[in-house]
Sequence to fold (101 residues):
Amino acid sequence: MWVIVMFDMPTETKIDRKRYAKFRKQILDDGFNMFQFSMYIRHCMSRENAEVHVQRVKKILPQKGHIGIMCITDKQFGQMEIFNGKEAAEALVPAQQLELF
Fold:
């Protein structure tokens, strides 16, 4: 599963910018990576694990702003076409989970 957090937050005042920076830092600390400027993604090994991270994001939602949280499967994520300008770019590959016997 992939958890995607998309957000637009006000940055007009110093307090708004602090809230934006704090929210961004907290989702980065939870293992999200920037995909685009206001879009962060995190790979999870199961639906249950994805739900844990969704709940963590919900706990830190800021007072202002528009935040969207979406979960998609590896297959759906793999069907995305990514470009840098007109050049096709390689898609992100999730880390492999190790199994201990």
Q: What stands out?
A: The beta strands are 2-8, 33-36, 39-43, 66-72, 83-84, 87-88.
